[in-house]
Amino acid sequence: MTADQNPATDDADALRQRGIRSFVLRAGRTTEAQTRALAELGPRWIVPYADAVTDWSAVFGRAAPRVLEIGFGMGDATAQIAAAKPETDFIGVEVHPPGVGALLQRIDAAKLSNLSIVQHDAVQVLRHMIAPYSLDGLHIYFPDPWPKKRHHKRRLIQPEFVRLAISRLRPGGYLHCATDWQPYAEHILEVLRAEPGLVNTAADYAPRPDWRPVSKFERRGLNLGHGVWDLVFTTR
Fold first, then answer.
1. Which candidate, 164, 157, 227, 168, places its Cα nearest to that of 192?
2. Which residue spans within 54-168 are E strands per DSSP?
């Protein structure tokens, strides 16, 4: 089955028509080291975006469990998870050059062979580059909460996106979200509970899995007294 034949295509079209993207462009300075990493390491670890399903077994040189992460920021937690799970292949999707450059540096320093990057909007990556029912997991950590009510429609976690996302997960695969914004956590919980193809692994919010490290961003918030909410759902 191709991406265009999948029922989730209609949801992807709806996302595009509503202008929903997995990111918002922000100003940010790319350091010389990150720029060098993009130029020197990018050709090895960045998979170019394509409007066709990618052969990820060929990319990684093996057939293995596969997890995609949307919006890895500066990539610290992503690299730690990949290093701790060498039996799993990870696809990190991010658009911001500083973060992509930083993760390339981490991949090189740790000699990781199970982590690749796509520098593109994750909605389009899921729709075109990921085959249906091919992912074992999907990570979405600290997406933009769009706290103002008039901006809530821009939130990534919406019913259309969730249907697209789970169409790429194998039966028994998992969707793991984390946020430090309680109203967004409540919104995510409501959206995921309403999706008949998902089952919550907890009564409501899940404990942070041991394998998800606390990022610098998260630790800073915890030190300020902010809460963090993890949500882990599996596909039926």
1. 157
2. 66-70, 89-93, 115-118, 135-141
Tell me the binding residues. 69, 94, 121, 144, 148, 180
CA distances to 11, 12, 16, 204, 218 from 193, in Å: 18, 20, 24, 9, 25
Binding-site residue numbers for S-adenosyl-L-methionine are: 69, 94, 121, 144
Domain boundaries, the chain: 3-235
The answer to whether the CB of 108 falls within 8 A of the CB of 33 is no
- Indicate which residues carry an active-site annotation: 144
DSSP string, 171-208: EEEEEEEEES-HHHHHHHHHHHHT-TTEEESSSSSBPP
Determine the CATH number of domain 3-235: 3.40.50.150
Name the residue with tokens 């610098």: 216
**How do residues 184-226 score in pLDDT, each as one tens digit?**
999 999 999 999 999 999 999 999 999 999 977 788 888 988 8
Contact present, 70 and 143 (Cβ < 8 Å): yes
Using one digit for the tens of pLDDT, what is the confidence trace for 105-160? 999 999 999 999 999 999 999 999 999 999 999 999 999 999 999 999 999 999 99
Tokens of 40: 């020197």
User: CB-based burial of residue 17 (10 Å sphere; 0-12 exposed, 13-18 middle, 19+ buried)?
Assistant: exposed
pTM: 0.88
CA dihedral 103, 104, 106, 110 (to 10 degrees): 140
163, amino acid identity: R
Q: Which amino acid is at 6?
A: N
Q: In this structure, what DSSP letter does residue 127 have?
A: I
Residue 120 CB contacts under 8 Å (≥ 6 apart), including other chains: 49, 93, 95
